[in-house]
Amino acid sequence: MAHPDAGPQHIAIVMDGNGRWATKRFLPRIAGHKQGVDNLKRIVRACAQRQIAVLTVFAFSSENWSRPQEEVTGLMDLLAGALSREVSQLKQDGVRLRFVGDRSGLSDRVQAGLTRAELDTMDNRLLTLNVCFNYGGRWEIAQAAADLAARGEAITESSLSQVLLRNIESDPDLLIRTGGEFRLSNFLLWQAAYTELHFSPAFWPDFDEHALDLAITEYHARERRFGKTSAQVAQASVPPL
Q1: 236 in a structural domain
Q2: Is 117 inside any structural domain?
Q3: Dist CA 143 CA 100 (whole Å)
Q4: What CATH code is carried by the domain that includes residue 114?
Q5: Which of 64, 102, 120, 206 is labelled catalytic?
Q6: Is 124 one of the catalytic residues?
Q7: Ramachandran angles phi, psi of 180, nearest 5°
């Protein structure tokens, strides 16, 4: 268990509110998603500066395919464009990119871009950026169970955890959702079992360094017990003589 004064090492974010940000400004929804990509770059830098080791973001849900076709196409184009423009800078900045989700429904162009981005940044160690794209928490758990069943292994809490660790290597300490909504929306259902939750009213394009620091400050005020009592947590935090 981390020392109570330790900051979050792994932050997860549901980047919600891009479309509403744009609508509020009488802009097409895709303009909000473009602004959201720019903001992700800012928050990646901010996390690296704050010595966050892992940032996991929800970029595209498996349920998002039901959105208007124009918006879905625009999101796919945004991803392809970001891969071609941003990966070299992320590599230079020491950021490792990993993509988590079902790639089978993506175009060959996008699939190739994801694989290339992962290979180009695999040796970076400053920050790991997990991008959950065409992802759903229930899908992930079902895939892990199917993998174990295909190998003839028992499906247990421990075995499922081991399979899921291949996707995202640690459970998040802090999960932030922007946009004023109060739900997980099928994001990291297994990994967030003991994660501290923070809900921000800010739309994702407006979620800045100050909002990030506010979430981290709130995290520090929490007592993470993991099923233990407050007295047990306090005793565990006392340094040995």
Answers
A1: no
A2: yes
A3: 12
A4: 3.40.1180.10
A5: 64
A6: no
A7: 80, 10
Question: Given a cut of 50, is residue 1 above it in pLDDT?
Answer: no
Tell me if 232 is assigned to some domain. Answer: no
pLDDT of residue 231: 63
Q: What is the dihedral of CA 118, 121, 126, 127, to 10 degrees?
A: -20
Which tokens hold the place of 79? 């991803």
For the stretch 192-204, what's the b/e string if a residue is b when 16 or more beta carbons lie within 10 angstroms of its beta carbon?
A: beebbbbbbebbb
Q: Which residue type is seen at 54?
A: V
Using one digit for the tens of pLDDT, what is the confidence trace for 129-166?
999 999 999 999 999 999 999 999 999 999 999 999 99
Q: In whole angstroms, give the CA distance from residue 16 to residue 134.
A: 15
Is 64 among the catalytic positions?
Answer: yes
Tell me the C-alpha distance between 241 and 238, whole Å.
9
Distant-in-sequence, close-in-space partners of 201: CB < 8 Å, separation ≥ 6: 179, 180
pTM: 0.90
Q: Whole-angstrom Cα distance, residue 35 to residue 19? A: 10
Block residue for tokens 């966050």:
52
Composition of the chain by helix, strand, coil, percent to 5: 50, 15, 35
Residue 196 lies in a domain: yes
Residue whose C-alpha is closest to residue 214's, from 187, 181, 176: 176
User: What span, in angstroms and rounded, lies between the C-alpha atoms of 205 and 79?
Assistant: 16
- Domain assignment of residue 26, given as a range: 10-134+172-221
* 123 or 230, higher pLDDT: 123
Tell me the per-residue pLDDT of 65-122, one tens digit each, with 9 for 90 and over: 888 888 888 888 888 888 888 999 999 999 999 999 999 878 888 899 999 999 999 9
